[in-house]
Amino acid sequence: MIRRNRMRCLSLLALLVPGPALAQEADPLPPVSLEQRMLLRCSAAFSIIAGRQDHGDEEAQQYPPLAERGMEFFVQSSAQVMDGTGMDIDQLAQALEREGLQMLEDDELDAIMPVCLQLLDQSGL
After folding, report:
1. pTM of the shown model
2. Tens-place pLDDT, residues 52-79
3. What DSSP string describes 73-107?
4. Residue spans of alpha helices (H) in the chain
5. Cα Dmax for the chain
6. Angle 58-49-119 (CA atoms, 0-180°, nearest 5)?
7. 33, 84 contact by CB (below 8 A)
8. Is 9 helix (H, G, I), strand (E, B) or coil?
9. In this predicted model, what pLDDT tens digit does every residue of 12-58 receive, in sequence order?
10. What CA dihedral angle connects 99, 125, 10 and 68, to 10 degrees?
């Protein structure tokens, strides 16, 4: 089960690489704690930056490479949020998309990255 969820979470990375917005929300999401929201926001931020780094975006290169560590953070955090909230994989994808799009719309990505990088370092990954 964990392996299957890990693979599903990995496939969610593609959802957060900048591109057209996905389908509108279907069902309301379960409430999340402040800690869980931060995990979602940082997972989305790492995914966006890793995608941009992979595409050669110069601004994204200012951050450490996030393809491996960021992905592992994404996977572990996603599993933690799913376990803590009871979200299924579709709800998790919706929550990650919402956080990623909100960060991009509000131009908050660069502002949140220092906090997220500290969180990544504290995670031991």
Report:
1. 0.79
2. 998 899 999 999 999 999 989 999 999 9
3. HHHHHHHHHHHHH---HHHHHHHHHHHHHHHHHTT
4. 2-12, 34-54, 69-85, 89-105, 109-123
5. 38
6. 125
7. yes
8. helix
9. 544 454 444 444 445 678 889 999 999 999 999 999 999 999 889 99
10. 110
